[in-house]
Automatic annotation (TrEMBL):
InterPro entries xrefs: ArsR-like_HTH, HTH_ArsR_DNA-bd_dom, HTH_MetalResp_TranReg, WH-like_DNA-bd_sf, WH_DNA-bd_sf
Keywords from the UniProt entry: DNA-binding, Transcription, Transcription regulation
Keyword match DNA-binding: yes
UniProt KW Glycosyltransferase keyword: no
Extent of the signal sequence: none
Protein species of origin: Paenibacillus phyllosphaerae
Pfam families named in the record: HTH_20
GO MF, any single term: DNA-binding transcription factor activity
Protein name: DNA-binding transcriptional ArsR family regulator
NCBIfam families attached to this UniProt entry: HTH_metalloreg
């Protein structure tokens, strides 16, 4: 494997990659208010515990969840700070759409004024 391919394979997922999957977004929603064990999280999805654990690993690699071991159980909690990057990125598009809607409003209102 070339050095570039090796680096790509070793790269950690970023926030955007991590939330691109609907299952991972659902996991984040479940963890908003509470820390939960993987067995409880698995009960919310039609997939194996191993599959849920893989999704949790991607979220953890992106810094979106923290894992801690309690006895034989692994519990997960949301770490919302990395979502600020997403919020900042989306804020640009909020301004974009606000400007577009303002222009549309001005266009519609100027047409109403014409006979």
């Amino acid at each position: 494997m070339s050095n570039a391919n090796s680096k790509a394979a070793d790269a950690k997922p970023d926030v955007f990659q991590a939330i691109s999957d609907p299952t991972r977004r659902s996991l984040l929603q479940l963890l908003v208010d509470q820390e939960l064990p993987v067995t409880t999280l698995t009960g919310h999805f039609p997939m194996s515990r191993t599959a849920v654990s893989k999704h949790l690993r991607i979220l953890a690699d992106a810094g979106l969840v923290k894992e801690r071991k309690v006895g034989r159980e692994r519990r997960y909690r949301l770490e919302p700070e990395p979502l600020l990057e997403l919020k900042r990125w989306l804020a640009y598009y909020d301004r974009y759409w606000d400007n577009r809607l303002l222009l549309l409003k001005q266009l519609v209102e100027s047409d109403e004024d014409e006979p």
